[in-house]
Amino acid sequence: MQVIDHNPARDVIVPRKQQREKEKIKYFDKQELKEFLNYLDTLDQSSYKNLFDIVLYKTLLATGCRIGELLALEWSDIDLNKGTISITKTINRYNETNSPKSKSGIRDIEIDKATILMLKQYKKRQQIQSWQLGRSETVVFSVFTERYVETNALRKRLKKHFKAAGVSDIGFHGFRHTHATIMLYSGIEPKDLQYRLGHSNISMTLDTYVHATKEGAKKAVSIFEAAINNL
C-alpha cells in the first residue's frame, strides 16, 4: 500500500447548492386593481349571484382575510355599528368549520365605512331573498341550498370574472396578497399588518405577503436621493 503525499479531495470543487426558486406571489398592481373594481361596478346587481360575488371580492380586498375565513362568517361575527369582523373559524376542504391555523388567526378586523355600508345593503338583500325561500339565514355568504357554499364553484366563477375584466388570474389568495401590499406601501406598521392578517410571526408577514412593486422601487430611489441631498 502506497502513502499518498497529498489529499486529492482538496482539488475537488463542490458545486454550489442551487437556491430553490421562490414561488411567485400573485396580486394586483394599482392599475389592474382599478380595472377589476371598475369591472365589478358594471355588473348587474339585480342578479343576486352578481351581488354575492361583488360583496365577496370587495370584502376580501378590504380585509385581507383568507377565503375560508370569510365563507365561515355568520352575521353574529360582524358588528356593523362598530365596524368590526371577528374571525374565529374557517372552512376546510370538506366544507366543515375548523378553528384558524393558530391562536393569532383568531382576531378582530376593523373595516372601512364603504365596506360597512356595502355589507348592510347586502344583508338587507339577503334577508329578502331568504324570506322568499321561507328561510332565515345566519351565514353571511350563503347560497341558501346548503349551509356553506362550495369553494370550487366560486373559483370557477372567479376565473370567468377575471377573464371578462381582462386582468390577471390571481386566485382568491391573490386578494389577500393585494391587500397586504396596499396596506404596507400606504404606511401601515408591519406589526399591525401581522395582526390584521392573523400571522403568528412578523417574518411570515414580511417574507410571504410583502412584494417589491414598481411604486415601491420609485419610492426607494426618492428616499435614497433625499438622504444623499441632506448629507
TrEMBL record:
Please name the GO terms that the record assigns under molecular function: DNA binding
Q: Name one GO biological process term.
A: DNA integration
Gene3D superfamilies, per database record: Intergrase catalytic core
- SUPFAM superfamilies from the xrefs? DNA breaking-rejoining enzymes (SSF56349)
Q: Which domain of life is it from?
A: Bacteria
This protein's name: Integrase
Q: Which residues form the Tyr recombinase domain?
A: 23-222
